[in-house]
Each structure stands twice: as C-alpha cells, then as structure tokens.
Amino acid sequence: MKHRFCVLYGMDCTLGEAVAAYLDAEHYAYLHQEHICTHEALHAEGNKIVIRQTWKLLGFTVGNECTAEYQVPGRFLQYNFKPYPHWLPSIYHLIKPYTDLNYYPDPTGTHTVSELWIELDMPFFLWPLRGWLEKKLRKLKIDKDQEDMDMIARRHELFGRGNMASYFSRNQFMLHKQAFMAYFNR
Amino acid sequence: MSDYFIMKGKVLPPASASSLKSADIAPDTLHPIALPDGKTAIVLRHGNDVTAYLAQCPHMGGDLTQAKYCSKDNTIRCFWHGYHYDAGSGEFTHNPNIEPMQLLRTASPCFDSDKKVAYRLQKLEVIIEDDCVRVDYAKGKL
Fold first, then answer.
1. Contact A25 B78 (CB under 8 A)
2. Minimal Cα distance from B56: which residue of A?
C-alpha cells in the first residue's frame, strides 16, 4: 500500500544556494548532528551515489543505505533504501520509501521553492500509522532545512546573497561538483 | 497551498559584552566577546594562556561561538563542517570528512583533491587590564 504526500514551502535564498547546501555533504554530520551521526559514500556511478547514513536510537547506531541521484539543476531522488546494519530490526525492513525533491525558482524571483514528494510503500498493518509517519518526516525535513537556512542566512550577512565563491573554490569538496559548476558557474 | 510559507534563516546576534571578568573565563570553554566594530570574537583559556579569535570560520564563515573546544587535542571544531583548528595558533589541522567521502574525492577540473588548504583562524590580541579581558579588534588585529 502506498502513501504519498508533498512537503512544499519556499526558502529565502537563490536556487544555487539551496542546491549548494544540499550537495555540500561535509556539513551533514555536523550542522545536522541531531539527526545524522555519519554520512558515507559507498559507491558512485555517474549522477548516482550509494550512501550510508547513521544516527543514534536508544543507544544503538542505526541507519540506512540508499541510492541518491542528482539531476541538474535542482532535482534529487532517493530510493533503494535498505536498513543498516541489515540484521537489526528496522522500519526499512517493512517500509520502502521513495523521495523526489525538486528545488526551482519561485516565479516572482524572490525565493526558491522546495517541493519534496515522499512515497511510502508499506504493509497493510502499518497503514494506520501513515499520518504519524508523515508528520515525523515533514518535521525532519523542515528541521534540517531550517538548519541549512540558518547557515545560508549567515552567509548572506557575511558575503552577500547569491555569493557562492567558496563553493566554486578548487579545494571545496561537493557531491557532483562538475555538474553543479557547469550549470551554476556559467 | 494554504500552508505555504517562506523559510527564513536565523542569525545569532553579535555578543553584547565587550569585556569579560578574568575570573569568569572558565577554562577550556569558548566565550563570546563583542568587538568594537560589531563583530564577535571567541576567548579561550587553556592552562595559563588566554587566546582570542574572530568568531568566523575561514572555511565557509561558520559562527565559532557555536564551535566546540576539544581539550584532548587542543582544537576548536567548527559547528558547520567539523573542521579542526589548533587552538594555540589558529591553524587548520584536520578535515574529518575526508575519510567518509574518500571514494568521491577524486581530482577533477573543479576539485583539487591533493590541495593543502591553508585556512587559519584570525587571531586577535587579548588585553588584560584590572582583571578584565577585552579584545581590541582594530588595535589588536594580528
């Protein structure tokens, strides 16, 4: 049974800044440390990367592995979720999520729209919990984006809105940097 | 669309106190202190040394008033990306993200994987007078 919902709002930044914050994977385990302990790349091929993320739950280190795909300029898909460690009972043994995040400029040109579609493929006995799961996932997405927005707002104050010079620097690591640069550093 | 909103970022206000009582500077803790130009510095007492840095990470601009101090290796660790800086000299010492992202850190026309980064915290001179500690950004900038 599939439950599908959308988390939609605007972010007070340019499209490039929203995408850069997403691709700047070095901040995940620090700025988002309340949600993520580790973020590791396991395999990469083209615009797809298999990642492993872990976090703490009741004293255990738990997490997931999934395929993350980037489509220029601002689309991010995540699928093939598997539990980590595989032997530990996990929600990912029962629910198969699919996420489709799209960042695009608002028609007024004042901000960036963040449109996240989440699909949860779940067994019938979890169907009554779909509302609770949706609420939790909405909150997680908003909390993490708020942390990113706090970072972006400080950078606006220091370097000016839309200034991405530090992301373009040759010593700055980013996921899919060549594709990002080809589009945003024209 | 009725619940559509625009998320705005929150920036911490600059520190308000322009001086600290020497006795109030707990060891191995980062203390924010206001600079005359409206910026903020962090003051750290480690052993007998009191050091101060501009509260801005040279990597991406992270607010170092939210950084962590690690007394084990005497480093200041930025809250945004976890970069380590030597608390005595301000020099960048370690990027903890290299290992987990090693697979992707291959050289390309826009990324130089071998480039040694030369980030350094901006060290400021600490002035201690009458048991009060202050940092004069304009005069004390090193």
1. no
2. A158
My answer on whether omega of the bond before B96 falls inside 30° of 0, hence cis, is: no
* ipTM given for this complex: 0.92
Query: Model confidence at B2, in pLDDT bands (50, 70, 90)?
Result: low
pLDDT tens by residue, B37-75:
889 999 999 988 999 999 999 999 999 999 999 999 999
Helix/strand/coil (H/E/C) assignment for every residue in chain A:
CEEEEEEEEEECCCHHHHHHHHHCHHHHHHHCCCCCCEEEEEEEECCEEEEEEEEEECCEEEEEEEEEEEECCCEEEEEEEEEECCCCCCHHHCCEEEEEEEEEECCCCCCEEEEEEEEEECCHHHHHHHHHHHHHHHHHHHHHHHHHHHHHHHHHHHHCCCCCHHHHCCCCCCCCHHHHHHHHCC
Q: Can you say how many angstroms the Cα of residue A180 is from the centroid of all Cα atoms in its chain?
A: 16
pTM, entire model: 0.94
Phi first, then psi, for residue A164 (nearest 5°) are -120, 20
Q: What is the pLDDT of residues A16-32, one digit of tens each?
A: 999 999 999 999 999 99
Neighbours of B138 (CB within 10 A): 8
Task: Please report residues of A whose CB lies closer than 8 A to that of B100.
Answer: 29, 38-41
On the question of pLDDT at B142 being above 50, the answer is no
